[in-house]
């Protein structure tokens, strides 16, 4: 099932088993076998999305509001459990029977649809509907853009990766919040000498390790380095910035930056978060969704103001902009190229008037505890009991010139699996930085 926006990360697994879980119909009659034709009138557009609250309820309410306001342009919607959806949408698109509206995460998945000619080019439409585009975070369009053209509408919420820290641990150690990567590393012996892990890391889960590579490469080489990988350029991983990043990672492991036994710490049970809020670790690099679980599970750790947060600091001499971020810039709605002209018009009308309307924006904040990918929501965020954190997420997201998508989402499933495997080996010193580069160059474009 999909987790709530403040705690979800399950969807970043790109290798879900085929057919896992049963499809759950939330509403409508298109059912698991429904396609672009859907049911009802010729202008009825089919729309599949994920189960799991609060997201499912928020999506369904938005579709119902649109249907009420547009009796001649209705959406026929069906909800699926996460893994079942991934398999169902892949099969439907491959058979040319996709729903009119294709919900997804952009990046590598969307690129595969574009390459197969299965989704509409929306570039001109956004050019003609500037108000729709201008209300959204500019950075949210990154994973929606393939070869310079826009193929999906950003929607829902944003989840940057954040450097959290325990203020009480810092105070007890007499440590100052680091302003650079080098200052972070200088704090490693300070915390180790007090028996505290400098950084909490759930090394048993490969994707948690990945967040360190994503930020370090961005801060060292800027966004163009990974963009070359995403674009499929031959030997793109051979950029000197990559070797620098990999060497720094193994240097952190050797210095004990992640504490003893980090490779056995499991993210599935939030054990890494527990190390931070119990004072056994000083810092943790993790997704915005962990704020909610630490608030729920950490006693008074969050409510008492012991939790601090910041964007990843710069690396001295690096080319990256310290205002940029990585993570999940949003979720995405593409339009099937196989849909009828009437269905496509209904979908575009939903983009104009239904997606992220005022009610949906309030729901994602108040029910989901998240920041929608919409500008100008400061007053809604300010009314939340988590206003300070949500404002930080909002400011980080809207001010980032580049909001890089998580690598395992940006790449194809084949390349993503090789990436995660080699990252795990890197942290266990089972591959050298140069071997890592060689291995990853072999799967570029696959």
From TrEMBL:
<protein>
    <submittedName>
        <fullName>Sugar ABC transporter substrate-binding protein</fullName>
    </submittedName>
</protein>
<keyword id="KW-0732">Signal</keyword>
<dbReference type="InterPro" id="IPR006059">
    <property type="entry name" value="SBP"/>
</dbReference>
<dbReference type="InterPro" id="IPR050490">
    <property type="entry name" value="Bact_solute-bd_prot1"/>
</dbReference>
<dbReference type="InterPro" id="IPR006311">
    <property type="entry name" value="TAT_signal"/>
</dbReference>
<feature type="signal peptide">
    <location>
        <begin position="1"/>
        <end position="25"/>
    </location>
</feature>
<dbReference type="Pfam" id="PF01547">
    <property type="entry name" value="SBP_bac_1"/>
</dbReference>
